[in-house]
Amino acid sequence: MRRIPRVLGALAAAGALLAPMTPAADAAATGSTTDQAAYFVFTDITREEAVVKITDPAEIQHARDLVNGETTDRPHLVGRILKRRAPYNPRWSYHYNPETVDFFDQAFEVCDATIPYVEEHLDEAGGAFLPGLVWCPWTSRLVREVHAP
């Protein structure tokens, strides 16, 4: 029974991420705002690494707490991806929309995929694969914080 609230929480987070983006949010996601941001390297079961930009102060603090070992709650990343390179994540043809990054304990399989699998199937993302472009790699974990590019 304890898993039900976590699953429902992940569903609510995914539902919020599926809401249409506004032009202002899209501009913010591309880095055209001056808000403070933090950058973290994350990995998954494949041991590949990517960089996530986080702009929400509460999520930045949670990420730092995870990296520093101060919490183990909600260790996995969830958010909506953008199908284009980001200067801070040049290896991959996609990145998390910084305005949508959140963390979870458990989520539904429909948004789970590894870092390289998303790259290999990016043209399919947003349809049956990663509906709404919501990505929640179940084995994701933050590795370290890095300086802004």
Written account of the structure:
The protein has 4 helices and 9 strands, in the order ααββαβββαββββ. With 149 residues, the chain is an alpha+beta fold. The longest helix is centred in the first third of the chain and has 15 residues. It is globular.
Supply database-style keywords.
single chain, 149 residues, alpha+beta, four-stranded antiparallel beta sheet, three-stranded antiparallel beta sheet, 4 helices, 9 strands, 26% helix, globular, disordered N terminus
Task: Provide a short characterization of the protein structure.
It is built from four helices and nine strands; from the N terminus they run ααββαβββαββββ.
Q: What portion of the residues fall into strands of 2 or more residues?
A: 15-25%
What number of domains?
1
pLDDT < 50 stretches: 1-34
Task: Write down the Rg.
Answer: 14 Å
- The helix/strand series, from N terminus to C terminus, equals HHEEHEEEHEEEE
The coarse overall form would be globular
The structural class is alpha+beta
Helices and strands, with pairings:
Elements: H1 3-17, H2 23-29, E1 38-43, E2 49-54, H3 57-67, E3 76-82, E4 95-96, E5 102-104, H4 115-120, E6 125-126, E7 129-131, E8 134-135, E9 141-146
Parallel strand pairs: 6-7
Antiparallel strand pairs: 1-2, 1-9, 3-4, 3-5, 3-8
